């Protein structure tokens, strides 16, 4: 990658970061700037972009439980939405053609259906980045959103096979054998340890899965995702994900830059892209209606629909195929690239205020939900809890165990990851599965006996949001939180948190205290007989 790409991407990313917006929006802008000044993309840019997407899907797979994909709300929700979308949007496009709106005048009915199909997909890159940055990938709505994206990927594989006139290789049936070699991969991970071989192993597995699926004439990205899912049960899956995170984020910059190199837009194309983005409100409403119909809670339906309300990079592939086959004017490829970029911006900006919006308008949103609650959406009351630890990662589990040794069953844990809670219950933890940012949850449980809540969450934004939810239900106890950096401590205190512990400082202090205890025990006089 040329230095000028890195420099422009850095300047644009930093500028957006300083304004409070995510850097990825700056990377999109950087791509268009580089294109406008006449800089030509090199093959290495596309290589970086492909690597970023492959690693991202592999790391998604490391966090997925296959049973989540088999739930009715996942497969029925995604397929129902796509069917409704194709009917409604293709009808709108045909109507625009009848009105002789620019760029629509020469579209046939089959071209209108192709456009609607291209617009139906949501962006895996955008949605996953959004959920990860908000610490919501393992929440109820986060898992549902990822499940829908995977179902859309499966539809994409079928479309690519049909449109290219090629069926998957007969040897694709041999993919069943991956489940039988999983013990060998598990043994490999057990022997890798924590060295620099761990991220290298991740690269080999992700790219190997991609190449295997490409060889079998399947979508390579789906191969990386599947290999990740095969390893999701392993104890090293979380560490493997963290070791790849920085590589993945760096390579994904190449993806966002590459969008800007597709073509230079004209004012007319930009206006058309803005008009097409009005369809995002329709996409949101259809997703929300489908999820409500499937008896999901209003909050889950609202957050999932909002996260999925964008256009996908896969739509660009559909447009490219249509343009090559002369089904559609190549100008639509540029229009969709612009609309996709703009949809990333809109989704990112709107989702940042999603929880505060729900807090203010939850009665309206809940008025649409079914009176009958799905079993997975029922809340459990933490009986006799005086201390509640929210976030049961390594730090949260350590805090729970230390407090439990003193207070016994008066301590409860809480985490949004159902599988983690299930595993901890087997270890004897008193734990419940719930999203700390869920206003409905806090309104449904009794906090009158809870004297202390510990927040051990991945981001300070999460801790701040949970604190706001607790204030809204008039919680009267104390709140403590973990900060990983010194500059985060004051931000958390400003949210109204009573005590903030610096993760690294407190770990060092605890280590010193334990060491001094050992020293004093060693120097104490031995009892005489």
Determine the CATH topology of the largest domain: Na+/H+ antiporter like fold
Strand count, sense and barrel status of the largest sheet are:
6 strands, parallel
Number of self-contained structural domains: 2
Compressed to H and E, one letter per element, the order equals HHHHHHHHHHHHHHHHHHEHEHEHEHEHEH
CATH C-level category of the largest domain: Mainly Alpha
Q: Ranges with pLDDT <50 over ≥5 residues?
A: none
Strand order of the largest sheet: 3-2-1-4-5-6
Strand content: under 5%
Say what oligomer this is.
single chain
Secondary structural class:
mainly alpha
First-residue to last-residue Cα separation: 76 Å
Q: Work out the helix count.
A: 24
CATH architecture of the largest domain: Up-down Bundle
Shape label: globular
* Rg from Cα: 25 Å
Helix fraction bin: 55-70%
Topology:
Layout: H1 3-18, H2 23-36, H3 43-61, H4 66-69, H5 72-98, H6 109-120, H7 124-133, H8 140-163, H9 178-192, H10 197-215, H11 220-230, H12 237-260, H13 267-276, H14 279-293, H15 298-307, H16 313-324, H17 331-352, H18 354-366, E1 387-390, H19 394-407, E2 411-415, H20 418-426, E3 431-433, H21 439-444, E4 452-455, H22 460-472, E5 478-483, H23 486-494, E6 499-502, H24 503-523
